[in-house]
Amino acid sequence: AVDGDDRNRSMMTWASGGKLPFEVMSLMEALNSRDVDYLVVDVRGGLPDVELFDLARSCDLLLLPANPEMMSLDGMRRTIAARLSEAKQTIPHFYLRRSAKLDALMAFRADLNKQLAAREVKLSVNDFIIKACAVALQQVPDANAVWAGDRIYKVKPSDVAVAVAVEGGLFTPVLKDAHLKTLSALSAEMKDLANRAKSKKLAPHEYQGGSFAISNLGMFGIENFDAVINPPHGAILAVGAGIQTPVVENGEIVIRNVMSMTLSVDHRVIDGALGAQLLQAIVEHLENPVVMLA
Fold first, then answer.
1. Burial annotation 229-243 (CB, 10 A radius, 16+ → b, else e)
2. Which of 33, 63, 90, 224 lies most in the core, judged by the most C-beta atoms within 10 Å?
3. Annotated catalytic, 267?
């Protein structure tokens, strides 16, 4: 069976398994006459004869169970695949890792949420992370930059993109001038952007631009991970879950809520020491949340 999608990529399935059947000539003719991108071989009957690999040199050989479901790529999936393949192939990533103690932030957040309850505002930890990154980019302005082929552009506002998972992919809506906005304003804007992203009702200008991004998987229990930079951004912060962790303070072991973060950095734009300064500023704001609001 040969199937194709709207880009004329095709898949041929050979379901016999084991050694080549007597129909080897018809298989060879099919491979030679059709533009076959993938030959899918059913391996439940055993591995195919080595001759099949010789026949399939003109296409990618996939050893799979018979009749796999082929899912055509929609526009979003194609864009994600193209941009992130480009990012990993062309951007020299390096990674900086730090942890932040969230106890002061959690207490401050609980107090603020009590005071904001009458306005039906509920701040999330992610709102504080967005604000901390935005203020840090102002404090370390050389890190607030993007790559532009043969030059670097340093930008003044903290336009922070935040990854939002949607069915079939993700959007990265941008909170513009995030350093100038209150936590409650950031929270309301983020909720609106996330809701419209999930219903795919964002306008292009709402998810394009920015110099920095945040990807938070902490709500899924992920402790740490490395995120892929979304070009032309200079960096992206991968945020893990807050975990009750024993730490040593003043010679004593105490339990603290510790959150792990990884800053993926484009080395063409930001060097190691500069990236470390940016991550240090982010940690300081998360551990002393009152200061970043001053």
1. bbbbbbbbbbbbbbb
2. 224
3. yes
**Active site residue: 93, 179, 267, 285, which one?**
267
Least confident of 6-10, 170-174, 238-242: 6-10
Report helix, strand or coil for 236.
strand
Residue matched to tokens 């080595």? 50
Taking a C-beta distance cutoff of 8 angstroms, is the pair 270, 234 a contact? yes
Q: Vertex 248, ends 262 and 282: CA angle to 5°?
A: 30
Q: Please give the pLDDT value at position 20.
A: 43
Determine the Cα–Cα distance for residues 201 and 155; give it in Å rounded to an integer. 28
**What is the C-alpha separation between 181 and 129, in angstroms, rounded?**
13
Distance between CA atoms of residues 30 and 130, nearest Å = 55
The amino acid at residue 169 is G
| Token pair belonging to 293 | 């609001």
Q: Summarize pLDDT for 241-274 with one digit per residue, the tens.
A: 999 999 999 999 999 999 999 999 999 999 999 9
Print burial letters for 48-80: b (CB count within 10 Å at least 16), e (below 16).
beeebeebbeebeeeeeeeeeeeeebeeeeeeb
Beta strands in the chain (DSSP E): 2-4, 10-14, 38-42, 60-64, 93-101, 145-147, 152-154, 160-162, 164-166, 169-171, 174-175, 212-216, 235-249, 252-266
